[in-house]
Amino acid sequence: MTHLRIREVDVHKEFLDPAAQGQVVDAVRKVAEQAPFFQPDTPYGKPMSVRMTAAGRFGWFSDRCGYRYVEQHPQGMAWPAIPDPVLAIWDAVTGLERRPECCLINYYGSDAKMGMHQDRDEASFDWPVVSVSLGDDALFRIGNTTRGGKTESVWLQSGDVVVMGGAARLIYHGVDRVRDGSSTLLPKGGRINLTLRVVE
Ligand SMILES: O=C(O)CCC(=O)C(=O)O
Ligand SMILES: [Fe+2]
């Protein structure tokens, strides 16, 4: 396990060993059986390339009305609980008493990406956002706390955990691309990213 700090963003390389990664993937699969992946629309009306679901009291949702947290899956059910192995990652990496109320689950196929954005739909920015990468490698871009300017990129690999807190909490970030076939963790390929968020 090595640790990088890129513009106040903490990148814990190889935080999860392969066995732990498998345990989290099994837990994510159970969540997705209860709360199937869906493809949200951006507020501009274009579908996102990433497919999503969530666990916890809140899930993140987007459509023409904007971005927001919602207490129900688009099909009407409550989101499943955040799995214990996922909460254990939050505990280990943050050491906080407070726990996240949302685990957003993003699935990236080989053509998916995520544009530069801030995570700013939460009530408070005092809590970190913790991100867990599983499956194929992703080129993660880190910018500034305002849009534009110079950026730095890092390849995130399966088992890496990123923490955006403190001065990095409102930093712009995105995923430029996923390296198809770079991991064998997910039988059908692609990448899963979990982001843990304190919402209220
Ligand atoms: O997939 C990633 O590594 C980042 C995901 C992200 O930024 C988000 O869901 O807000
Ligand atoms: Fe984000």
From TrEMBL:
Provide this UniProt record's keywords sorted from A to Z: Dioxygenase, Iron, Metal-binding, Oxidoreductase
Any one Gene Ontology molecular-function term assigned to this protein's record: oxidative RNA demethylase activity
Q: Where is the Fe2OG dioxygenase domain?
A: 99-200
Q: Name one GO biological process term.
A: oxidative RNA demethylation
Q: Which InterPro entries match?
A: Alkb, AlkB-like, AlkB-like_sf, Oxoglu/Fe-dep_dioxygenase_dom
What is any one of the record's Gene Ontology cellular component terms?
cytoplasm
Q: Where does 2-oxoglutarate bind?
A: N106, Y107, Y108, R191, I192, N193, L194, T195, L196, R197
Q: Does the keyword Metal-binding apply?
A: yes
The entry marks the following residues as binding substrate, namely W60, Y67, R68, Y69, D121, R147
- Entry protein name: Dioxygenase
- Source species, please? Sulfitobacter mediterraneus
At the highest ranks, the source species' classification is: Bacteria, Pseudomonadati, Pseudomonadota, Alphaproteobacteria, Rhodobacterales
